[in-house]
Amino acid sequence: xxxxxxxxxxxxxxxxxxxxxxxxxxxxxxxxxxxxxxxxxxxxxxxxxxxxxxxxxxxxxxxxxxxxxxxxxxxxxxxxxxxxxxxxxxxxxxxxxxxxxxxxxxxxxxxxxxxxxxxxxxxxxxxxxxxxxxxxxxxxxxxxxxxxxxxxxxxxxxxxxxxxxxxxxxxxxxxxxxxxxxxxxxxxxxxxxxxxxxxxxxxxxxxxxxxxxxxxxxxxxxxxxxxxxxxxxxxxxxxxxxxxxxxxxxxxxxxxxxxxxxxxxxxxxxxxxxxxxxxxxxxxxxxxxxxxxxxxxxxxxxxxxxxxxxxxxxxxxxxxxxxxxxxxxxxxxxxxxxxxxxxxxxxxxxxxxxxxxxxxxxxxxxxxxxxxxxxxxxxxxxxxxxxxxxxxxxxxxxxxxxxxxx
Length: 406
Ligand SMILES: Nc1nc2c(c(=O)[nH]1)N[C@H]1C(S)=C(S)[C@@H](COP(=O)(O)O)O[C@H]1N2
Ligand SMILES: [Mo]
Known about the structure:
Elements: H1 3-19, H2 36-39, H3 43-46, E1 54-58, E2 61-64, E3 82-83, E4 98-102, E5 110-113, H4 114-120, E6 123-131, E7 154-163, H5 164-171, E8 179-184, E9 201-203, H6 204-207, E10 213-218, E11 221-222, E12 232-234, E13 247-253, E14 268-270, E15 285-287, E16 294-299, E17 304-306, E18 312-319, E19 325-331, E20 339-340, E21 342-343, E22 353-359, E23 365-375, E24 399-405
Parallel strand pairs: 4-13, 17-24
Antiparallel strand pairs: 1-2, 2-3, 4-5, 6-7, 7-10, 8-9, 8-13, 10-11, 10-12, 14-15, 16-18, 18-22, 19-20, 19-23, 21-22, 23-24
The structure holds the ligand Nc1nc2c(c(=O)[nH]1)N[C@H]1C(S)=C(S)[C@@H](COP(=O)(O)O)O[C@H]1N2 and molybdenum atom (MO).
Molybdenum atom is lined by residues 83, 132-134, 240-241.
């Protein structure tokens, strides 16, 4: 057998294995042609996601949940949204994974192996809400470029790791420290190794909070690769872009970090409200910090049919960035009147809170159920779209579902 034929035979055998059944006309597949089934990796299998998750982009991979998928108190990985700015790291070697601390404001550079991080520092576990700054972007007008998130770019998983504060104290930081920046192992879309897809972070004050973790576990297991394995920064309550995945370097900066996606209109909004479509000067844009108050009805699924005379028990979650949610209400008359929901305290700071209510409908027909949360400073969600901004961030409008009483 000549070499050419041999290669063809072995690849056909390999492809048959991957397809999972006989490729009937396999012998006539053009050379170096990849069957469609193998060209399009199934993202649900690839990332272990539920089939009801919605793919928004495949280069890079971005995927969101639907409201009813987020019904669990702690979000399981299969319902957790994916937001990537670049390509997922390849060939992650955890035995040689090193976290380096550097920057203008560390007393000396220092490196830790994963094993050292886990064994030298105390472990802490918190439920932490992570919401993409662009969640709700699809509603803005004029529309904003980027992934057209509806309501599903939010999660609240249970994260376990070491406190970032403990590491910063071990390294020693100078008095002039301003910002903690992350650098990570993901790959720029251009595959240029000199370019980073994203490098953001948090001000030192947020870095030093009890709940800010360098996490190595999610929901009691290793972090799934797509969510940051083996090491991830988790800064709950802030736009999730501050929570670097695949972190291998942390820089303590003596100025506001200036990495990719820190400037321009990235994760920044006009410091003062502007008219829709306005051009905003760079110096009038402010970095998004704590996320605004928001809520989600996770049961029932929009479109539910309710039998006349039966009460409907709705439930959902509410969160308010750095603040606590103090009130959750619902309306079945398009916002004319509001009734209180039962609202639970958060299990820990920065975890979303659960609400529920028992609803009586006056008669048969179509209804909408609107939910509205209010934070500890008395600020409520707007019923409709809030302030326009160039990239479509911070849409915290009330969530609404439709039901029919039949
Ligand atoms: N290294 C790295 N970290 C990252 C990102 C990224 O592209 N690369 N995306 C950020 C953004 S914009 C969001 S919203 C969250 C998404 O986290 P998830 O995919 O685990 O839900 O990760 C953040 N951390
Ligand atoms: Mo994001």
